[in-house]
Amino acid sequence: MSLREAALREDRPFDIILVHSFSRLSRNEIESELLVRELRQNGVEVQSITQNVGTDPVGDFCRRIIALFDEYQAAENAKHVKRARKENARQGFWNGSPPPFGYCLEAAEMRGDKVKKKLAVDDKEAAVVRKIFELFLEGDDEQGPLAVKKLTVWLNENGFRTRGGALWGVNQIHRILTDPVYVGEFIFGRNAPDPKDRIKVQCPSILSRRTFDLVGRTLKSRNPKSTPPRTGTGEALLGGLLACPVCGGGMTRKAAKSGKYHYYECQARMSKGTRGCSGKRIPAGDLDALVIGGVEEKLLKHERIREILAPLIDRQTADGEAKAARLASHREELGKERGKLDRLYEAIEKGLADLDDVMFRERIDKTKDRISRLEAMVERASLELAPELRVTTEKIASFTAFMREKLSADAGRSRPYLRALISDIHVREDTVVIRGSREKLEQAVMQGERVLDAVPTFVPSWRRRRDSNPRDGFPPTPLAGERLRPLGHVSTSVPISPSARDSRGIRHNPSKGPDPAEPLESAL
Hints:
Blueprint: H1 3-7, E1 16-19, H2 29-41, E2 45-48, H3 57-90, E3 103-111, E4 114-121, H4 123-137, H5 148-157, H6 170-178, E5 185-188, E6 199-202, H7 209-222, E7 242-243, E8 251-256, E9 261-266, H8 267-272, E10 282-283, H9 284-298, H10 302-308, H11 310-317, H12 320-349, H13 358-385, H14 393-407, H15 411-419, E11 424-427, E12 431-437, H16 438-447, H17 451-454, E13 489-495, E14 501-502, E15 505-506, E16 521-523
Parallel strand pairs: 1-2, 7-11
Antiparallel strand pairs: 3-4, 5-6, 8-9, 9-10, 11-12, 12-13, 13-16, 14-15
Helix pairs in contact: 12-13
């Protein structure tokens, strides 16, 4: 238990906290004052041995003045220490802390009674570093190039240990593979937000630049943030789309009876049993047929697609000059907002504003949000002006025929096309709800047979803030003076007839098919 927690307890064990000076309590005037008031409300006083100012109003005033001087002194000390460390790095000396793996410290020169040190290669550790890069690029005698995780396992299984004798971790190996120190460039302040605070310190190299760059390109090509995962060719048509009706988690395909039967089952139930989720298994073949049938009957029809895309068609047939004027207006406003953000950052660099200030950070966040919305509006307005992307009757007819053909293929080939149309599937007691965004459908129809290039099936960071891309439960956030047309969602509810159910779960009756009277709901 901390001293503060003990002091704030109802049965506090003491009434006074004695410090050498008030700077030992805190070197931030606001935090210090809030803490003193909080303790005083609980009957605990803070007293200083060297700064006895009393507890009356005059004493409180003196204590605040002392706290302001302490805060100023701390800021000045931090500034001077930072400047000294940066200058030490510019001269090529080490600033302290353990050296990177593969290096040791050696005395370079004496300045007064201070020993200035520089990085030197540790031959034993350097051999391990070279081995790590070799395994990543070439592998060992039994297997080819090793990924980071397999490389970590290989090192641990073959007796390689860290400097402290511990097992290697994935993060440690990745740090070694990406650290430019091994080609003779140690970056002091590598993670500093301001590039001016990053100083390149020359040091002995362990690897060649060619090897390091090759590893960097390989890691970048495997990065899931820039390279989407490959679409599998398995039989799980609805994998990644199904949501459990009980817990809302994902469902995956599972085989039973030596592959004789296949089901979709909640991942929580598969990993934790019925205590994790009580959801039932659903026959895979029946649910696959039900979903494909529902999409074909309720979405892939010329009249229905034209109805859903009516707002887009209306926009595309509007006056071209008005669109161009709107695009120019959006671009002008976007330029102003970007200039405003640059000025806010410039204020931080000049010391006129503090990034830790809550109100200042809110201004930056609001400006970033507005820039994101305007960028989306500019992109959308630009697409509306592209004549080759206009939606026509012929394009809709060609798209529906093409998609019906692709969805009739095997699960592995039809899955990416299904994902290009829908976002998620919710299985309920007697209904399967299939949902997708109007934006997806717009892009898919405009791209036609290039639908997989137009609609990404992998989005690593989707709508982190509430912007002009609404989702269920989140209303659109309009800009001041601007009325936004929300993208909205398209969803279809496919009823499950009693005859299509049995004791095992859900079954589909092809002869009955989806209820043609059930409309495809479009929620704006």
